Each structure stands twice: as structure tokens, then as C-alpha cells.
Amino acid sequence: xxxxxxxxxxxxxxxxxxxxxxxxxxxxxxxxxxxxxxxxxxxxxxxxxxxxxxxxxxxxxxxxxxxxxxxxxxxxxxxxxxxxxxxxxxxxxxxxxxxxxxxxxxxxxxxxxxxxxxxxxxxxxxxxxxxxxxxxxxxxxxxxxxxxxxxxxxxxxxxxxxxxxxxxxxxxxxxxxxxxxxxxxxxxxxxxxxxxxxxxxxxxxxxxxxxxxxxxxxxxxxxxxxxxxxxxxxxxxxxxxxxxxxxxxxxxxxxxxxxxxxxxxxxxxxxxxxxxxxxxxxxxxxxxxxxxxxxxxxxxxxxxxxxxxxxxxxxxxxxxxxxxxxxxxxxxxxxxxxxxxxxxxxxxxxxxxxxxxxxxxxxxxxxxxxxxxxxxxxxxxxxxxxxxxxxxxxxxxxxxxxxxxxxxxxxxxxxxxxxxxxxxxxxxxxxxxxxxxxxxxxxxxxxxxxxxxxxxxxxxxxxxxxxxxxxxxxxxxxxxxxxxxxxxxxxxxxxxxxxxxxxxxxxxxxxxxxxxxxxxxxxxxxxxxxxxxxxxxxxxxxxxxxxxxxxxxxxxxxxxxxxx
Length: 564
Hints:
By secondary structure, the protein is of the alpha+beta class. The protein is about 25% helix and about 25% strand. The strands form 9 sheets. Strands 17, 19, 20, 21, 23, 26 and 29 form a 7-stranded mixed sheet that branches. Strand 13 (about 255-260) and strand 14 (about 260-265) form a beta hairpin. Helix 3 (about 130-150) packs across helix 6 (about 235-250), helix 6 (about 235-250) crosses helix 7 and helix 7 crosses helix 9.
């Protein structure tokens, strides 16, 4: 596992107190004379997580308030802003809108305990009510906040536009031991973490997660069956990266229509930024090893900064996975600038965050090409103009300037290769992102896969056959039996969407509905869709786009392409 040679999370004065704590485990915060707001309180944490750094470390939590009764809330700054407050999701049987939901309480209390070292740490992160989870979350989120607001980065003391709501100061609320609302019985353990901007609260999304009443932004760390996501520093830095993206670009989760169909690149770039924060702050280029215990070490959570992901070849429509293109590009850029310009992680973070600030003018309609150009422009403004040519070559090799259409076949003259594409539905309550267009002359809502595909038909052939299994969505609740898909075809160029028109007009040569057959699966019978495109011209390139008029989204699995 590669290290990035990051400094210790503790200052020298904090480390001295931590060393004293190691020598005398009976020392309390009061005995140690810790009343300085800049020093905080004694605690025991995993520096990254129990898998990556399994040895517990004694530290002093920074910036803990002395005026809130001993709980984990930041001291107020000169503007009255408390950056962080940590609470637990406690299952007390509270019911809201017919569902059992969290009661939010701050349970870790140094005034009661004498410090922030709790015996329930021995439970290893599997308990639903451990106070240690609050301590871990505070340590990691504070570490991320210290990193982005450090003098070495030199941009601001507090993330802009995230700490006021309705004219008053609000903290970032961090919820640990989160379990999902339940229609009956106890709250449901969940292996996930989330960032919610305060704008989502106004849309009712806090209430949907059983978190109604919170003001300001929220980081949520789930309590899984085998892991506690609050124990994962990489997860905390990742979710904090989403908050930084929102703070600096002025946008959040946003899918929009452009001339290639529905575009999710704003969200993909946010994921790439979030993972970049994770490896920059943690110092580890392999992410998700602790959280992957939740999946039985199946690799579901594992990501690598030193990956080879390319755009658009590796796009599938899953935001976190697709974000690996940008995380990998950042890692290459960081290695280049560290070697050639002696940039450290703070200088690179400054470059990233100033790039994000330059994206605000696009109002969420961000492509990889736009991001790459703004990154290069920002690098020039920060004195790295000598390296822009090499950086651009790196971005070009990653495919950041290519159109959003890819060859999904490893063409060998007979067949293609298994592949996966996600597609949304037309119901916004199920996560659907769609455009208004027409179908057979009638107004219709339509979603699309986030990337088109193409095939170069060899001379002497005239038929392309594409088959895909219609399965469930990987992110949102879905019913694949309601997918209503078609294939659009265009020769010699991508299918083009004129989003300036209402309804959206589409430039394509042919629209074809599939032939459907029922096939068995581990979850019961599902459908296999087949499109047979005849009378085509050998030697030409054909672009294809799968669209969905159904309310539910889904996934197109085991894509198979054949020609004859």
C-alpha cells in the first residue's frame, strides 16, 4: 500500500499530551489541565481505520468546545460558527410519518467520563450504540477540516456558504451509528455513508432518511453488520470532499441533459474529488479496505488511486465507479507535480480547490473537458505553467477530452464482451433523471444511459445484434419489469439531443424496440432484450443509445454484441 508521506495529525503540543496520556492511563482531561480550546481533549482513535492502521493511537481532539456540557461540538469562532457537532442515531422507538426513525443525541461526554476514551471501543465497531463512534467521527472530520483550512493551503478559515441557514450560523452535523428508518421493528443497519447539503433538507430528503429537523449540512455514517463507517477515516475524508465540492462549486447532486443525452458528469467529478480528498488526507492510495469487510471482502468498496480507468471506456453510470477516472488522473498529476515542482499535498489541495472555485460559473453543467481546462488554467495561475503541457497530455491519455461514446465490444469478429450500463427512469421520486421529448409524436419523458456506444461494422457485414439483461438499478429502488427501453441508432456520428428545444429534439436514423425473452436469475425471472439491426452498411461506424420511457430505472447487464 503506497504512502504519500503526510505529516502527523497531531501538533507537537498535542503529541506531548498524548505521550503523557500513554504513560498514565488514569490521567483525565481535567488532571492534564486541558482547557485550551486549541488543544481539545484526550481520545483514542484509529489514525485511518481498523484495517489500514490497526494500532490504536492516543491523540488530543482539536477545537472541542468547553461551553456545551462536554459533548463533541466545535468551539465557536469569532463569527459564532461551530464547524462540527457529532450526534448518534439512537433507536428509542420514535415514529415519524408511520416509520420508526432515529432519535439524535450526543452521547460521548468528556465531562461525565473524564476524557474521550470509552470502554465500548473494545466492541470493535459492531455495536449500534458505542460512544467511540462519535469520537472517531469527530477526529476524522476535524482532521479533514483542518487540512482544507490549513495555512499551508491558505484559502479560507471555514468552508464558504455551508455554515449559515436562514441568516443564522449552523454547524456541520455528523450523525454516527445511523440505521435506516423501519416500517416495523428496530431501525435497519446500513453499510453506507452520505453527505447531504442543507438544500436537500428543504427538499424533504432529511425527513426521508429519518433526520428531520437538522439545520445545515449533514454527514451520515452508517452502522453496518460488520463495520462502523464512522471508524473509517477514508470514508470521512471522502464525504467531506463532497461537502467541499458543494461549497466551492455551488452545486450538488445534479444530472442534466446535454447533446449526448442525460449527463451525470457533475456527480462523477464530485466522486473523483471526494476520493482524491480521501487519499490526500489519509496518505493511502488504496481506499475502502475496512468498509469492504461489510461486503464480505468482495471488493465492493475498494478503489485505487493509482488506477488505469479511462473516459469514456470505463463509464457505466455508477457515480463512485466512474469517478475513478478523475481520482486516477489526479493521482498521476500529483505524482508529476511532486516530482517536477516539489508540490506537497497541501499545495495540490490548493490547486484542486481553486479549480473547483472556477467551476461555479458553469452552474453544475460540468464535463471532464471543462474540468481539465480549468485545472490547467488554475495550474498556470499558480505558477505551474511549465508543467501544463505534460498535465494536458496526462488528461488526454485519460480520455478527458473525448466525446461521451465508447466501444463496448472487444471485437474479435464474432462477439463482444460482458458489460454493464446503468439507466435511470422517469419517476423523480425513484431517483430518475430524464428529459421531456416526444415518442411517436406524443409528449413523453425519457431517460438515457449516461454514455453512448458505437461499433465499427466490418465490410461485408450488414447486421448488428445487441442483447442485454434488464436488471435492477444499483443505486436507487427499482422494478426492472417496468423498464420500457428502445435503441436509437445513427450512422457516422453520435445521436444528438437539442436540449435548447422544448420538447427536446433528437437526431437519429432509427428507433427500435427490443424483442424480449424471460430468463432465469438468482433473484427470479428477468427479461433479456435483443435488438437486431439489419440492412446496415459495412465499413461504417454506427452509434447506439439505449433510452428508457419507464418510471423505474435499472441496469443493462451482460451486454453482448454480434455482427453478421
